[in-house]
């Protein structure tokens, strides 16, 4: 029984001690939350070197030089004529008549200046641009002259109108009269690009030699 008393006493003392110390002990103050320190991290920026400009080597090719064509010369006042050559032929059969549809050529009295009274008529030398032949019909070689082997030349004067037609023809001189009519008929059929003066087409007085030559067939 004594043992039980001792145990009870010990337990009682322990309870009182726990009660007294438990309530007298001041609660420990709560630790202040550690202030979060914001660390500023300073980043060192790398030194940016300026970009080097790429040097582009300029090609040393020289610019092509424009080769200018030489200035064209002014038109020379002349009308080109080729020699109308016809081969020798045997005589025609008897009873052959002249071809129909012959061209009527204006008759100019000897000593009369061709184109007298015509407006806007200029000599070739006074034009800005001379007439240029577009169609040249060869003259018919007179049969008797061809059979006899006679050659010659006829010098004609004619007028090229502002439309390019031959409107008047006259003989200046000839080596044989037989060549005159065929030469005049041929030139009357010619067509031209008319001459110009001051930028407009005008009537032009021209002169030309019509040669009559022969060639023998082999």
Strand content: 15-25%
Spatial shape: rod-shaped
Query: What is the tally of beta strands?
Result: 9
The CATH topology of the domain at 84-91 and 104-215 corresponds to TolA/TonB C-terminal domain
Secondary-structure element sequence? HEEEHEEHEEEE
CATH architecture of the domain at 84-91 and 104-215: 2-Layer Sandwich
Superfamily (CATH H level) name of the domain at 84-91 and 104-215: TonB
**Which structural class do you get from the secondary structure elements?**
alpha/beta
Write down the overall mean pLDDT.
Answer: 72
Q: Radius of gyration, Cα only, in angstroms?
A: 63 Å
Helix percentage:
10-25%
Q: Given the structure, what is the number of helices?
A: 3
Biggest sheet: strands, sense, closure?
5 strands, mixed
Enumerate the spans where pLDDT stays under 50 for 5 or more consecutive residues.
Answer: 68-105
Multimeric status of the protein: single chain
Q: Can you identify the CATH class of the domain at 84-91 and 104-215?
A: Alpha Beta
Alpha carbon gap, first and last residue: 183 Å
């Amino acid at each position: 029984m004594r043992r039980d008393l001792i145990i009870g006493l010990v337990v009682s003392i322990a309870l009182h001690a726990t009660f007294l110390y438990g309530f007298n002990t001041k609660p420990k103050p709560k630790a202040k939350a550690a202030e979060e320190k914001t660390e500023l991290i300073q980043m060192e920026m790398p030194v940016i070197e300026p970009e080097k400009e790429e040097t582009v080597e300029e090609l040393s090719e020289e610019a092509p030089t424009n080769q200018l064509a030489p200035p064209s010369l002014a038109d020379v006042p002349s009308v080109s004529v080729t020699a109308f050559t016809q081969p020798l032929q045997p005589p025609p059969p008897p009873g052959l008549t002249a071809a129909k549809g012959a061209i009527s050529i204006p008759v100019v009295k000897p000593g009369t200046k061709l184109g007298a009274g015509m407006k806007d008529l200029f000599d070739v030398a006074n034009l800005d641009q001379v007439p240029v032949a577009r169609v040249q019909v060869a003259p018919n070689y007179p049969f008797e002259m061809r059979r006899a082997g006679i050659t010659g030349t006829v010098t004609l004067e004619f007028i090229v109108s502002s439309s390019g037609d031959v409107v008047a023809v006259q003989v200046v001189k000839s080596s044989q009269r037989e060549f005159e009519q065929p030469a005049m008929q041929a030139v009357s059929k010619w067509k031209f690009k008319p001459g110009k003066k001051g930028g407009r087409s005008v009537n032009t007085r021209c002169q030309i030699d019509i040669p009559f030559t022969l060639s023998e067939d082999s």
